[in-house]
Amino acid sequence: MDTAYSRRQLYPPIRPYRASRLDVGDGHELYLEECGRADGLPVIALHGGPGGGISPALRRFFDPARYRIILFDQRGCGRSTPHGELNANTTAHLVSDIERIRTALGIDKAVIFGGSWGATLAVAYAREHADHCLGLILRGVFLCRQLELDWFYRNGANMLFPDAWDRLTGSLSATEREDVVKAYYERLLEPDITRRRPDALAWSRWESALISLAGQPDAPLADPMRADALARMETHYFAHKGFLEHDGALLDSTPRFKHLPGIIVQGRYDVVTPPQTAWSLAREWPRARLRMIPDAGHAAGEPGIVDGLVRATDSFADQFGG
Predict the structure, then answer these.
(1) Are residues 184 and 232 in the same domain?
(2) In angstroms, rounded to a whole number, what is the distance separating the alpha carbons of residues 265 and 314?
(3) Minimal CB count within 10 Å: which of 42, 183, 189, 290?
């Protein structure tokens, strides 16, 4: 392949120059880390899930010589405490947490970066605090609309992955199969983490089976605690329709941040968050550039997605003087 068109790779592994904890109230304490250059272009990176937690790979989408990279585990997951806590855990709480982090770190404006649920949260933050955003970089856009939830948990993705769907729903009663999200949410309210573990793993395996075009399992299954947080948080948020004021609220709010520049990187064969949502958002957002990756699914680590995201972060560093 011509080097001019060679795909970009992740930046080399780095370690945080500072790790800290931030009390955000309601009994929640967040784990926070900063990487790269302390006086660099600020970027706040939002992990997926809800409940996925940050990973070392998330640091590597940004040039550490140009960016001040800020990552945190959202309420109830990763190294934030208490683990799996659903109380005082809504989209509004998470948006407030981002604002607390921005203020605590003395940042005026930042690039907001997020994939999947992280993209949901990025849009939710931008519609409330556009004046503190430089721009948005989104991947695998999910806006928590009913049609998106129905695709993945009612009738859509199951037509492509009937074997994985059978594993997800095999332990459910006929009544529970009528609303899979509700059924798992009620099961995962079980306070004993050991007793709810089979359901947490079953829930996480469904997403892991579909996340990559290459069919590679996702990281949560390697860590039962991470799978537990992912399953608890996802069912909590999805059963409550993202705690949004109405269906389609985030898409309807695009005018609040449409003056901001945006780059959307979307896998053409993403069956977790299908391209229609990214396409709809881009049509309502004049300053957004949508890059459809022709040989990718949903996973952030797929080569085409990595290439698109690294090019996007480099582009913003050029634009904003990082």
Answers:
(1) yes
(2) 14
(3) 189
CA angle 13, 18, 22 (to 5 degrees): 125
Mean pLDDT across the chain, nearest whole number?
A: 95
pLDDT at 215 over 70: no
Q: What percent of the chain has pLDDT over 70?
A: 96
pLDDT tens per residue across span 243-254: 999 999 999 999
Position 65, amino acid = A
CB within 8 Å of 310: residues ≥ 6 apart: 8, 9, 10, 11, 61
Q: Is the pLDDT of residue 218 over 50?
A: no
H helices of the chain, where?
91-104, 117-129, 146-153, 162-169, 180-188, 193-210, 224-239, 249-252, 275-284, 303-320
Same domain, 128 and 112: yes
- In whole angstroms, give the CA distance from residue 115 to residue 70: 15
Same domain, 190 and 275: no
Catalytic residues: 116, 270, 298
Instruction: Identify the domain containing residue 193 by its residue range.
Output: 147-241
Considering the domain architecture, whether residues 178 and 93 belong to the same structural domain is answered as: no
What's the angle, vertex CA 272, arms to CA 267 and CA 278, rounded to 5?
A: 50
Q: Are residues 208 and 248 in the same domain?
A: no
